[in-house]
């Protein structure tokens, strides 16, 4: 029994020894370096098991392994024996398991981890986190895009774990989060020492279309293009360069967003303080065209002071024309100051006011009655427009085209480009209108014919046409019409047919209308006038004499 008992105890102790000393496959075990040869380390992992590991697995990327015989190391036992009877072990996998345990704890505690960028992959970089490989997206490398990541390769630096999945072996880290956090702390410290109105030195860090970012020593401020100079600045690169040190004034600080607005022009005298003294109303100055728009052109009078020449103030004669066809950018022009608004910082300028009003000049050199010659520029339903000296136009109304006929018919005889002569009839400088007359070049035949004829006068006319409503007569080439009711005092004699073409008839002038160019004539009016005159001279119906007696006496007197 004692012998049997001792054998059982020995067997139990032996089994216990096997269980304790025999490493488990798929776990991390401790081993001792037996030798270093041919770029490999021979490691004893116990229970007469040895394995080989490449030396490069004992160093981080870019480092040289420091390993010698007798050193204790941890390795991952993948298999107790391979085809050569050696244990299959890996230092890298051991480091990875160890690293994952450490990284999961850091991720849970939101702590930073150290690592080194060692490779470039699509969309970013690979980072060694002490045994575990993580992915660093390109957008998470820095707060701004990085063109050359060479200086960051192999450099030990902190990272923030954004996401990790041990089952899939995925880890995503960020370097930018660390930088932003440190920048936020640095910005808060710098901003705390700044105040509005303070003048500081800064370095131009970046230039955009709308301004420049200036580094104030750990914090950036925006220098907007409108605060760089009092004059118009089309692009910040006109006056700034990256890396240049500039003196700026702190205009505004937003404590919540940590945004800082800077200014350069605030350190210079405001030219608008002396605008009214330097540029009084109606004074003429030479300026440079800086910008052209649809509604006018901006002219720089001096650096920082610009005025607007509205399109309506650009030319006396060119109407509805784009300003770009009158002036060009950078052109030097003479302008007159029309109005100044210092509160709105606006100056109204005039370009045409530096030249005399061409209508006033024309009125002085071409008084009414002056004969002019010009080209027909346009033909409208109410007349002709004729080009005149001074690049201005005059208008010949339909009623001024001819003495005879209708203007609506005569205008069809004219064409654009025709050279015509006319007389000036009126110049209205306020309305910028010049009235011309082509018919005024000739004497008015109506005035020549009836110039001496007055209302109430008895004239002799010739019958030229017989109509139902009356007769057409001619006087010195001028046609008139005597209505049926005016052919006789006696209603029975108001018959047009009692006249013949070529008959000479005495008529009384009832109206002379130069506008309608017509004579009002009447036989009836002549008869009534003659009767009235006879009664006045030879008696009245009250004296007992009959009308026949009176007229007979009058006729006899005429015969004598």
Automatic annotation (TrEMBL):
Residues in S1 motif domain copies: 26-92, 110-176, 197-265, 282-352, 369-439, 456-524
Keyword RNA-binding: yes
CDD domains: S1_RPS1_repeat_ec1_hs1 (cd05687), S1_RPS1_repeat_ec2_hs2 (cd04465), S1_RPS1_repeat_ec3 (cd05688)
Gene Ontology biological process terms in this record: translation
Alphabetical UniProt keywords: Repeat, Ribonucleoprotein, Ribosomal protein, RNA-binding
GO cellular component term of the entry, any: cytosolic small ribosomal subunit
One Pfam family here: S1
Ribonucleoprotein listed as a keyword: yes
Transmembrane spans: none
Sample GO molecular function, one term: structural constituent of ribosome
Family (UniProt): Belongs to the bacterial ribosomal protein bS1 family.
Classification via PANTHER family: 30S RIBOSOMAL PROTEIN S1, SMALL RIBOSOMAL SUBUNIT PROTEIN BS1C
Function: Binds mRNA; thus facilitating recognition of the initiation point. It is needed to translate mRNA with a short Shine-Dalgarno (SD) purine-rich sequence.
Protein name: 30S ribosomal protein S1
Source organism phylogeny: Bacteria, Pseudomonadati, Pseudomonadota, Alphaproteobacteria, Rhodobacterales
């Amino acid at each position: 029994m004692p012998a049997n008992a001792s054998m059982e105890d020995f067997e139990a102790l032996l089994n216990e020894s096997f269980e304790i000393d025999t490493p488990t496959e798929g776990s991390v075990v401790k081993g001792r370096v037996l030798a270093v040869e041919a770029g490999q380390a021979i490691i004893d992992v116990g229970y007469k098991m040895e394995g080989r590991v490449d030396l490069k697995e004992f160093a981080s990327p870019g480092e040289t392994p420091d390993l010698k015989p007798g050193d204790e190391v941890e390795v991952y036992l993948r298999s107790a024996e391979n085809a050569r009877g050696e244990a299959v072990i890996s230092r890298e996998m051991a480091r990875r398991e160890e690293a994952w345990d450490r990284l999961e704890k850091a991720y849970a505690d939101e702590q930073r981890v150290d690592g080194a960028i060692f490779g470039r992959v699509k969309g970013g970089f690979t980072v060694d986190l002490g045994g575990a490989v993580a992915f660093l997206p390109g957008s998470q490398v820095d707060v701004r895009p990085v063109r050359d990541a060479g200086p960051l390769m192999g450099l030990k630096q902190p990272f923030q774990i954004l996401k990790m999945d041990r089952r899939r072996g995925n880890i995503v880290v960020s370097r930018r989060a660390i930088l932003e956090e440190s920048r936020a702390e640095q910005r808060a410290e710098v901003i705390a020492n700044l105040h509005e109105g303070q003048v500081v030195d800064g370095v131009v860090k970046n230039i955009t279309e709308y301004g420049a970012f200036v580094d104030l020593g750990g914090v950036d401020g925006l220098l907007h293009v409108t605060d760089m100079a009092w004059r118009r600045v089309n692009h910040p690169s006109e006056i700034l360069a990256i890396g240049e040190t500039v003196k700026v004034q702190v205009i505004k600080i937003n404590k919540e967003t940590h945004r800082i607005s800077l200014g350069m022009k605030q350190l210079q005298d405001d030219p608008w303080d002396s605008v009214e003294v330097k540029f009084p109303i109606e004074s003429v100055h030479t300026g440079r065209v800086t910008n052209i728009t649809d509604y006018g052109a901006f002219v720089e009078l001096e650096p920082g002071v610009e005025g607007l020449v509205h399109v309506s103030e650009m030319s006396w004669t060119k109407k509805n024309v784009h300003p770009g066809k009158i002036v060009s950018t950078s052109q030097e022009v003479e302008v007159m100051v029309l109005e100044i608004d210092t509160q709105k910082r606006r100056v109204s300028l005039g370009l045409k006011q530096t030249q005399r009003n061409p209508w006033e000049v024309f009125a002085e050199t071409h008084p009414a009655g002056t004969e002019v010659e010009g080209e027909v520029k346009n033909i409208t339903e109410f007349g002709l427009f004729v080009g005149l000296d001074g690049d201005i136009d005059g208008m010949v109304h339909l009623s001024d085209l001819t003495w005879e006929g209708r203007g609506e018919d005569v205008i069809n005889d004219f064409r654009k480009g025709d050279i015509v002569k006319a007389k000036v009839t009126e110049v209205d400088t306020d309305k910028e209108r010049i009235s011309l007359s082509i018919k005024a070049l000739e004497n008015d035949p109506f005035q020549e014919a009836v110039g001496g004829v007055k209302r109430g006068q008895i004239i002799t006319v010739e019958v030229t046409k017989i109509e139902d409503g009356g007769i057409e007569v001619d006087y010195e080439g001028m046609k008139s019409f005597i209505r049926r009711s005016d052919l006789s005092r006696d209603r029975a004699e108001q018959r047009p047919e009692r006249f013949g073409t070529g008959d000479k008839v005495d008529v009384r002038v009832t109206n002379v209308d130069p506008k309608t160019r017509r004579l009002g004539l009447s036989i009836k009016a002549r008869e009534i006038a003659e009767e009235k005159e006879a009664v006045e001279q030879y008696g009245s119906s009250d004296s007992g004499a009959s009308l026949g007696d009176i007229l007979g006496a009058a006729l006899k007197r005429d015969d004598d």
